[in-house]
Amino acid sequence: MGVLEIIILLAAIINFFLGLFVFVKDPSKRINRLFGISGLITGIWVFTNFMIGIQKTLFWLKSAYAFGSFVPIAAMLWGLELCEKKITRREIFLLLGVGLFFFVISYSNNLIVTNVTRVYLGGFEGETGPFFISYWIYIFGILAFILYILSSSYFKAAGINKIQIGYVLLGAILYISVVIIVDFILPLFGIKELIPLDSPSSLFLLFFTALAITRVHLFGIRLILTETLVVATGLTLLVWAVTAEPFLLKILGGVLFVFFIAFGYQLVRSVIKEIELRAELEKAYVEL
């Protein structure tokens, strides 16, 4: 497993666990539920890209297109909630219906891709189907709408909400910019080696969302980022220890995994203690 595969796997794990931790922290909040769903779907999508690099089969290529069709919808619904924008149930079902349509046809041999002779990390050799262009128009149409919603809401917002939206907007701009550059602009000049970086570029959005979480309490939590990074890094070390070659690297990976788990446990405990101490100080200050 190469460096690029490890990066993609790490991005998938962080997406999944960040979404899970936000959801579990307070599932009663709509924004937590929507972010949890978005993190889960994005994590699955990134993982399918990882599997393309590992197995290089047509099934995982189709799966990447299939789950990729739901990623922008999930992000849009969470972004609308953050910006306090409302859409009707009819509009939601319409978008989900379009996403489901592209999800289903992605598994067809002739509608998105056809006559595929070779699959590799970041692309394939073959022909595009009749819905290939429509698929990407749909994807980037929703991404452009997300940017519009975030930017327009940013200039209208005030206080903490403005800062929250600003962090997420910056992450979204970096994420979408990387996708456009590596998937469309660079290939025009014959540079296709960087295409696999489109899915792990979702880490930009995660990173700045994490800043919003830790600095301005986007979800009312501070522990999420620490827990997510500890779990994601620990699982990545474990996978590396199991798959590394030669055997000496397996031993090294196992030792690093054990030390990191011990360190991560202490790190999470220290963050919990810091939060509890700060809460006690704030309570004492209020009582005064």
Look up the CATH topology: Rhopdopsin 7-helix transmembrane proteins
How large is the count of helical segments?
10
Structural class by secondary-structure content: mainly alpha
- CATH homologous superfamily annotation: Rhodopsin 7-helix transmembrane proteins
**What number is the mean pLDDT?**
81
CATH class: Mainly Alpha
Number of domains: 1
Radius of gyration: 21 Å
Descriptive labels:
single chain; 288 residues; mainly alpha; Rhopdopsin 7-helix transmembrane proteins; two-stranded antiparallel ribbon; 10 helices; 2 strands; globular
Could you give a short description of this structure?
This protein has 288 residues and is mainly alpha-helical. The protein has helices at residues 3-25, 30-55, 58-68, 71-82, 89-105, 132-156, 159-188, 202-216, 223-243, 247-287, and strands at residues 113-120, 123-128. The chain has a single domain, classed as Rhodopsin 7-helix transmembrane proteins (Rhopdopsin 7-helix transmembrane proteins), CATH 1.20.1070.10.
